[in-house]
Design a protein that fits this description.
Layout (H helix, E strand, L loop, with lengths): L3 E11 L9 E12 L4 E5 L6 H9 L6 E6 L2 E2 L6 H8 L1 E4 L13 H12 L3 H14 L16 H14 L4 E5 L7 H18 L2 E6 L2 H7 L2 E6 L2 E6 L11 H8 L6 H6 L2 E2 L28 H4 L5 E3 L3 E3 L7 H16 L10 E2 L3
Parallel strand pairs: 3-8, 3-9, 6-7, 7-8
Antiparallel strand pairs: 1-2, 1-4, 4-5, 9-10, 10-13, 11-14, 12-13
The chain binds adenosine-5'-diphosphate, iron/sulfur cluster and magnesium ion (MG).
């Protein structure tokens, strides 16, 4: 049985109610998604595509406008206060801003112990549990009496993870949890998270705009664009190349350690206008920026998320044809460059 299943989930925010003129933001739009027991699901996409909103729905902190959330086979009650659902299901969320989940006026030990107090854990046991948690996240005992402002960003993030683990959660949604840390601290915290997942049998949903971090952490990757999942890996397709043009664009930005391969790497730079979640484009939402968009198919008809074995599910009319179509576009651009019309060539860049 799956741990969580999202069934046609949409989250729409009305702007009128917030005094920002008319319109509706379709932050998440008709998403079906399953999180299996024991797996790490990665969600990647650029800022504003709906990752945090989707993560909050999974945890139970955001009610869907439409659709249902099924936790361990049982439909989650929508009438309850969202926080109550998160507690009932044993789900936690860790945000980018670690300091935000630690009370600045209270010592670190107090913040980590908060879920234990809610559980009614005795004071005599509590201190021991907090010290164990500090050790597990690689922080010295002395941190128990420090204030958040006295800790580095990496130490704060470790304390926030300890706090999330304190209530023995079934699932933690990590939302850009390492994005504000420097590269070496990021690597340490990512490795720590992997170890903790094994020790605590906790599931993660790992959300980031950084596809390299998502690839490293996740068993399966979901790629989001403007509220939709446009590509979803199969459980066993790990390390197969992603095939949606947007996924390929994201992966093309990741530097390769081998200098010879790195020199040949083609970074794809998107040039078209970024569409808005309030005024969505017709057809495929990515068509305004897609390097291989074909008219009228891409601007008229929205592609469905369908099986594209062995990778997984993909929403693109031309899934698997990226290289061939990009080469054709480059050839056309080359021919046109003589006449000064090399528009298509502008979105392909080879690093120096
Ligand atoms: N409470 C809200 N009210 C109105 N719009 C919102 C609200 N929360 C998020 N949004 C909008 O929903 C879209 C998705 O936001 P978000 O889920 O934060 O994306 P991401 O985490 O990928 O950056 C954005 O356009 C954002 O401005
Ligand atoms: S459907 Fe068309 S615009 Fe959308 S990703 Fe595929 S090729 Fe690009
Ligand atoms: Mg976010």
């Amino acid at each position: 049985m799956s741990l969580v299943r999202l069934d046609g989930v949409s989250v729409h925010f009305s702007l009128r109610r917030r005094g920002r003129g008319g319109g509706v933001v379709r932050a998440v739009d008709d998403v079906d998604l399953t999180i299996g027991e024991g797996e790490v699901l990665g969600i990647v996409g650029e800022s504003g595509c709906g990752k945090t909103t989707l993560g909050r729905v999974i945890v139970g902190l955001q009610k869907p406008t439409f659709g249902g959330v099924i936790v361990r086979g049982e439909k989650r009650p929508l009438r309850q206060r969202p926080g109550a659902n998160a507690r009932r299901d044993g789900f936690q969320m860790v945000y980018q801003d670690a300091a935000g989940s630690l009370n600045p006026w209270k010592r670190i030990g107090w913040s980590i112990a908060e879920p234990l107090r809610n559980e009614g854990v005795k004071k005599s046991v509590m201190r021991r549990r907090v010290l164990e948690l500090l050790e597990q996240v690689g922080l010295p005992d002395s941190m128990i009496d420090r204030y958040p402002g006295e800790l580095s960003g990496g130490q704060q993030q470790r304390a926030a993870i300890a706090r999330a683990l304190a209530g023995r959660p079934r699932l933690i949604v990590l939302d850009e949890a390492v994005s504000s840390l420097d590269m070496s601290t990021q690597a340490q915290v990512l490795n720590l998270l992997k170890d903790l997942a094994r020790q605590h049998s906790v599931n993660y949903v790992f959300i980031s705009h950084d596809i390299a971090a998502v690839d490293f952490m996740s068993d399966r990757v979901a790629v989001m664009y403007l509220g939709k999942i446009v590509e979803l890996e199969n459980a066993h397709s790990k390390r197969k190349p992603l095939v949606h043009p947007y996924s390929i664009t994201l992966r093309s930005a990741v530097p390769v350690p081998d200098p010879a391969v790195e020199r040949r790497r083609n970074r794809i730079v998107l040039t078209g206008p970024v569409a808005s979640a309030v005024d969505l484009p017709s057809g495929c939402r990515f068509h305004t920026r897609c390097p291989i968009a074909q008219q009228p198919a891409c601007s008229d008809t929205e592609p469905e998320l369908v099986d594209h074995s062995p990778t997984g599910l993909v929403a693109c009319h031309f899934a698997g044809e990226f290289e061939a179509r990009r080469a054709a576009a480059q050839n056309r651009a080359g021919a046109q460059s003589a006449t000064g019309q090399n528009a298509a060539a502008r979105n392909i860049e080879t690093p120096a």
